[in-house]
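Can you give me the bound-state structure? Components:
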Amino acid sequence: MRYWLMKSEPADVSIDDLATFPEQSVAWYGVRNYQARNFMRDQMTIGDGVLFYHSNCKIPGIAGIARVASGAYPDAKQFEQSSKYFDAKATPEQPRWFNVDVQLVKKIALIPLSELRLHPELARMRTLQQGNRLSITPLDPDEWEFITARLVHA
DNA sequence: GCCAACGTTGGC
DNA sequence: GCCAACGTTGGC
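Here's the bound-state model for the whole set.
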């Protein structure tokens, strides 16, 4: 069992959008970074804990708890010529990009990035490191525990 | 909308 | 295989 923080732009898929989807689940399409891809393809398993993070928006922060709901499978968007995620070098026989399904567990009161920065317990979190841009980062179990037990107010 | 930080691309 | 140029991310 691993823990992850996954960034989504709410203008694209927000926590409220996720709640309206079938099974309250979404294919985590559009990851075009190899390190983030490898996390999904090689390390995620069904049931892993996910912090659903809103990025590139007015108040960035953790917006909900979710879970990994599938193994990795090829990202359909890499084959769609009209998609901004189209990749001409990818083929169904040799897919380059993968995603997992992410399912809502519960929406929470937003924990702003500015609050996360206040807690020394979270000082080592990847997402809080200067210059970090990875959209998927692993969380230490103690970071997960601290956030879900101490900072979450449903 | 600015811009720092970082990843990727491609010429050599 | 180096590295400059370019594109993207994402907080502010």
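A couple of observations. Residues 9 and 57 of chain A are 7 Å apart (CA to CA). Residues 141-151 of chain A form the longest helix (11 residues).
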